[in-house]
């Protein structure tokens, strides 16, 4: 089945794109790393969202979610790890599955971390974002697990149960993963290096030989997600119609640049959905 569109991201931009595609009667999927964007819910008090003065981030997100749910659309809790341009349609890898669609709406927020040197070059050759998808490839092998959030500890534990030796790098305090084959290293590698495949992690003071590295974070940098997508300083380049440099790919919200604000995200989500519908009509 080829969907009209796939929305990636569950923040205000993604919610707005989903509501608009639903109202416009399109057949789409909507993926997010969690059911609600943590960032969108984080505001203690929102004073600049029209019509809803003095609302908390949690309340605002709750109204967004309920609105979408009321229209019969809900996100699937899956991290999208790659989008492939197949010329006129796209293949989207989410969790362990792949889906096809004719347009993509990127609502991925600001990437929390810059990619590590070598991350992009070794993607699919030892760099993975998904323990359940690729973990089995590393049975009994040496791996690095770079974990950016406690929420991903179950994936780290799963990887420890499969791999022979794990260099576990939690990027937060209070990691509770403990496995006899895991060495905890509270440092970020400077580089992922190797030849045809990943061979080692390079730290400031030493190197660790590995067969692969799993990077567990809630987002994937846009240029890694979709090869050939033009970005500038981590932001996706998009015009006023939210069109990117790739035909059929639209971007909305914080991922397109400042100001990082709910109203801008929601407005661009609306524009991106309308632009996608226009594109679908013009490219039947
Ligand atoms: C503490 C705080 C207070 C704030 N206060 C205000 C305020 O008062 N007023 C205001 O206007 N704005 C405020 N903001 C900013 C506002 O929260 C953001 O501008 C808004 O959330 C942006 O929405 P977005 O949809 O573009 O991105 P986000 O809300 O960041 O959502 C992006 C979502 O996409 C998901 N995602 C990313 N990559 C992938 C992938 N590959 N696969 C699946 N999912 C993916 C992310 O996990 C995330 O859930 C505040 C932000 C913070 C942190």
Describe the secondary-structure layout:
Layout (H helix, E strand, L loop, with lengths): L1 E7 L3 H12 L4 E5 L5 H5 L14 H14 L5 E2 L2 E6 L4 E5 L2 E10 L20 E2 L2 H4 L7 E6 L5 H10 L2 E6 L11 E3 L6 E4 L3 E5 L4 E3 L2 E5 L5 H4 L5 E2 L2 E2 L12 E3 L10 H21 L2
Parallel strand pairs: 1-2, 1-6, 2-3, 6-17, 7-14, 8-9, 8-14, 9-10
Antiparallel strand pairs: 4-5, 5-6, 11-12, 12-13, 15-16
The structure holds flavin-adenine dinucleotide.
Can you put this structure into words, describing what you see?
With 284 residues, this protein is α/β, with parallel strands linked by helices. It folds into 2 domains: 2-112 and 219-282, FAD/NAD(P)-binding domain; 127-216, FAD/NAD(P)-binding domain, CATH 3.50.50.60. Helix content is 25%, strand content 27%. It has 7 helices and 17 strands. The chain has helices at 12-23, 38-42, 57-70, 131-134, 153-162, 222-225, 262-282; strands spanning 2-8, 28-32, 76-77, 80-85, 90-94, 97-106, 127-128, 142-147, 165-170, 182-184, 191-194, 198-202, 207-209, 212-216, 231-232, 235-236, 249-251. The strands form 4 sheets. Strands 1, 2, 3, 4, 5, 6 and 17 form a 7-stranded mixed β-sheet that branches. A 5-stranded parallel β-sheet has the order 7-14-8-9-10, with helices on one face. Strands 11-12-13 form a 3-stranded antiparallel β-sheet, with no helix packed on it. Helix 1 (12-23) runs parallel beside helix 7. The longest helix has 21 residues, at 262-282. The mean pLDDT is 94. The structure holds flavin-adenine dinucleotide. Flavin-adenine dinucleotide (FAD) binds at residues 8-14, 31-34, 37, 39-40, 42-43, 46, 48, 79-80, 107-109, 218-220, 225, 253-254, 260-263, 265.
